[in-house]
Amino acid sequence: MKNKLALFAAVLMVFSCTQPVPDIESRPVDGHITIPITYSDFIQIGSKGGWGVIEFSTNRNWTAKNINTDFEDWCILSHTAGEEGEHKIYIQANENPECTERWANIEITCGSDKKYIEIYQYPKNELKLPSTYYRARKNGEVLDIEVQSNMHFAYEVNPDCSEWIQPTSTKNPESFYFQFYIAPNDTPYVRYGQIKFKSDGHEDELGDVVTIYQHGNAHIGTESDNYNLFSEGGNFTVGLVSNIQYNVNILAYWITEVTSKAYTTSERTFYVSPLPEGSSSRTGTIEFSHPKFGLTKTITVTQQEFLEIVLDKTSIELFQQEQATIAQASTIQMDPLYWESSNPEVASVTQQGKSGRITAISPGEATITARTADGRHRGTCKVTVQDINDYVYLLYLPSGQSQYINGYVQPSSKLSWYFYNHTSETIYVSYLQIVDPKDSYEGNMMYAGTYVYAGKSEAWTITLGSATYLRSPCLKIYYEYKNIDYTYISESEYK
Predict the structure, then answer these.
(1) Mean pLDDT across the stretch 150-161?
(2) d(CA 121, CA 47)
């Protein structure tokens, strides 16, 4: 019995060993997609288009597609299928012509595994003004200026009109409306102003300009309120500035109009008869008015036997060698005029057309007189001539690098000076020179080429020659002020 059981067990063992072993590799394996941690599942592309890269690996065949079918025309994939292994899909995005962003979603499939990559493209930059022309009321108002933009921007009011165009609040670059206060226009003239809007911090130079137009108030004005004529009488012209029509009313029998114009801006010419004998002067008025607007402009006409010539300058201050021109400022131009100086050694005057040309000669004061040939009419201008060297100064600076032995500054000593410019203009120092008035010594001229601005100073250090002994060294500078050449010599520290 035991032998039979053993035999049966042996048969079972043989049978079991002859059964085929299942192949483990032949079992079905699911797909898997791996994206390196150094790569993101979110790719950004600029508005002008460009490339992006998706890098991944799979253990089976794979496919890829853009599941946003609406955007297939701008987002193109270099590959849409492949075998197992490591892969790169290049994404090409065309330029975005719209001012809105756009998205694409890329789906990669490997077996049952799916990965999604988002593609984002920036919108096209835009800065647009629906209207570039605004008309403001002449009495002033607040204007709302619309700006359409998807980017940061800034604005700038033209400096020429910043006094009457002013923002009502601080800049908010995300706003779509900007408010500007337009001040009342108190002049008779139409005026224009500009506001420039431009991109801020973007590589695209975008921008546009808004023009503000504002009418002027009703106005009647004249170039002068007073007109003076001498006893002989004659014609005189009134320059009017007006943006409305006006009436003319002459309130003096001895004044008549030569021409008649009814335009809003014009010149009106009047005639004044000679002053009667025995009269020294008389005064009349002329009115320019518009009853509807309640506007009246009155000028005064004075006729007198002796008339002062009004000059455009009553006093002038000049440095030596400077020049200036003076001319008549009277409404009645007297011609010819003769020019004289009370002190020609201080300031001279010469005829230059209808003007006088003044030349400053030496410090002091002089009176320039303009007169008619008969001397009955004259005007004066006071001229003060100053020495420019009173406004500059050279200061010696002891440096400890000079030797003074037996009454002489020794060779190779280093001497330093400060130069101060107390004028109101820039001075150009062209050359420097060491001089010694005691020994009539003049050293070589050294090029400086230095601009010393108003209120500023400059320092120089000069080394004496190896065989130069000086008793009283000074610094002489050659400088230019308003295109005129001057010289200045410092005082010596060695007496």
Answers:
(1) 86
(2) 6
Is the fold of 33-121 the same as that of 315-386? yes
The model's pTM: 0.44
- What class is the 391-489 domain? mainly beta
Q: What is the pLDDT of residues 125-142, one digit of tens each?
A: 888 888 999 999 988 999
CATH of domain 220-304: 2.60.40.10
Indicate if the pLDDT at residue 440 is higher than 80.
yes
Q: What span, in angstroms and rounded, lies between the C-alpha atoms of 23 and 25?
A: 6
The 3-state DSSP class for residue 301 equals: strand
**CB neighbours of 278 closer than 8 A, spacing ≥ 6?**
none
- Give 396's strand partners: 417
Q: What residue spans define the domains of the chain?
A: 33-121, 127-214, 220-304, 315-386, 391-489
Please provide the DSSP assignment of 176-230 as one string. SEEEEEE----SSS-EEEEEEEEESS-SS--EEEEEEEEPPPP-EEES-SEEEEE
Length of the chain: 495
Rounded Cα distance, 254 and 251, in Å? 9
Q: Which phi-psi region, left, alpha or beta, contains residue 376 (left: φ > 0; alpha: ψ -120 to 50)?
A: alpha
State both tokens at 434. 């060491």
Matching CATH number, 315-386, of 2.60.40.1230, 2.60.40.2550, 2.60.40.1080, 2.30.30.240? 2.60.40.1080
In the chain, DSSP finds a helix count (H) and a strand count (E) of: 1, 43
Domain 127-214 - what CATH class? mainly beta
Describe the chain by its helix, strand, coil percentages, rounded to 5: 5, 50, 45
Specify the CATH number of the domain 33-121.
2.60.40.10
Q: Enter the DSSP assignment of 254.
A: T
How much is the average pLDDT of 273-288?
92
- Between 166 and 262, whose confidence is greater? 166
Structure tokens at 398: 């002891």
- Contact, 479 vs 427, CB < 8 A? yes
Q: Are 471 and 433 in contact (CB under 8 A)?
A: no
Q: By C-alpha distance, which of 356, 419, 431, 346 is closest to 387?
A: 346
Residue appearing with tokens 């003060």: 384
Quick check: bond before 336 cis, omega within 30? yes
**What percent of the chain stands above pLDDT 90?**
46
Would you state the structure tokens that stand for residue 359, as one six-digit string? 């030349």
Are 194 and 212 a contacting pair, CB within 8 Å? yes
